[in-house]
Design a protein that fits this description.
Blueprint lengths: L3 E4 L1 H13 L3 H18 L5 E2 L4 E6 L2 E8 L4 E9 L3
Parallel strand pairs: 1-5
Antiparallel strand pairs: 2-3, 3-4, 4-5
Length: about 80
């Protein structure tokens, strides 16, 4: 079973701003796409757990915070940022 991944609108805007500012746009796009695809396959296998249902993951050059709701197979991505180079 797949997970339904939802990005908060503000997080989508953060990602768009990161992409707009990037000199390596392809790397940013590939990282975001790979992260999203991994969440869809099995969100509980992505990244590391944090407090409660929150997890953190890294897909260079990005990092993400997201909540996983296994009972409903939902994921909400609520933060993204560029990691240091």
């Amino acid at each position: 079973m797949r997970y339904n991944v939802r990005w908060k609108p503000a997080t989508e805007q953060q990602l768009a701003q990161i992409w707009n500012d990037a000199t390596d746009k392809a790397a940013v796009a590939l990282a975001a796409d790979a992260f999203d695809a991994a969440l869809q396959r099995d969100a509980l296998q992505v990244g590391e757990s944090r407090t409660g249902r929150t997890r953190i993951a890294f897909a260079q050059p990005l990092a993400f915070l997201f909540d996983v709701y296994p009972d409903t197979r939902q994921v909400e991505v609520f933060d993204v940022w560029r990691t240091r180079r």
